[in-house]
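Lab notebook, bench 4. Still working through the backlog of constructs that have no structural model yet. Next entry is a single chain of 278 residues. Request: give me the structure tokens for it.
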Amino acid sequence: MKKNIVVESNNLTNDVKAVLKKYEYVNVIQYEFGIYKLSLNRPEAFNALNDELMFQLSEVVSLLQHNNARCLVLTGNKKAFAAGGDISEMSGKSYAQVAEEQYVTSIWSKLEQRNIPIVAAVNGLALGGGCELAMLCDIIVAGHSATFGLPEVGLGIIPGAGGTQRLIRAVGKAKAMDVILSGKTLTAIEAERSGLVSRIVEDDKAVEEALYVAHNIAKRSKPVISMAKKVVDYANESSLQNGMQYEQQNFYATFALSDQKEGMKAFLEKRQPNWQDK
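Model written out:
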């Protein structure tokens, strides 16, 4: 079956374009249907995540979200999605500094609070903070060369951007302990089999596949997608009983949407729905 082709677009206002140009570490390409591809841009450092890169990424995501973005694709380059945190930046920090400035947490929490999905397209290295950033996304599409790991203990620290919490929820305790304590890395195939990765494709197809996934998301009702994402995220943080109650509340809430009426009417009339996003 031929996949949908996502076409580049250029509908951003000049003001938004001017702001985006300021962010040297994040390149942005706009596509139709409210899809944006964000490419990390520190190739000389294998996209190591320093403070400035993460600040720029959080600002770009916030800006696009408030300019009617429907879905984002986040990627790196052929060698690395992101090889980890910037050790040269971290090495000189003291306990007092990291505690006072809420190091990592203050910036990463902005990305966690978004209401639009992000699809990660991962080639090459996704280690340490890079693996945590991929796990912060909602869906991971991996090229065959992708490698995932959390090697922080070898540096005398532990994962600090959600690695210990998200990995165990994705792959289970035994696999997470092996990765975190022994430094074991996961190939794309192992990551997919363990539940960390959604899809594996050839390396040169990872971004294309991620854009295809993003298109299938973006063509749905925006508030319904946001609600579904919120409920699935909640499942990672709650008991089954609480999760079921939360799902039920949000399921009922969809019946207050015009898009629920349109979606069901379109199904019965055997046509594509005309979403109003309300």
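Notes after review: The beta strands are 26-31, 35-40, 71-75, 80-82, 118-122, 125-127, 139-143, 147-149, 186-187, 199-201. DSSP finds 13 helices and ten strands in the chain. Flag for follow-up if needed.
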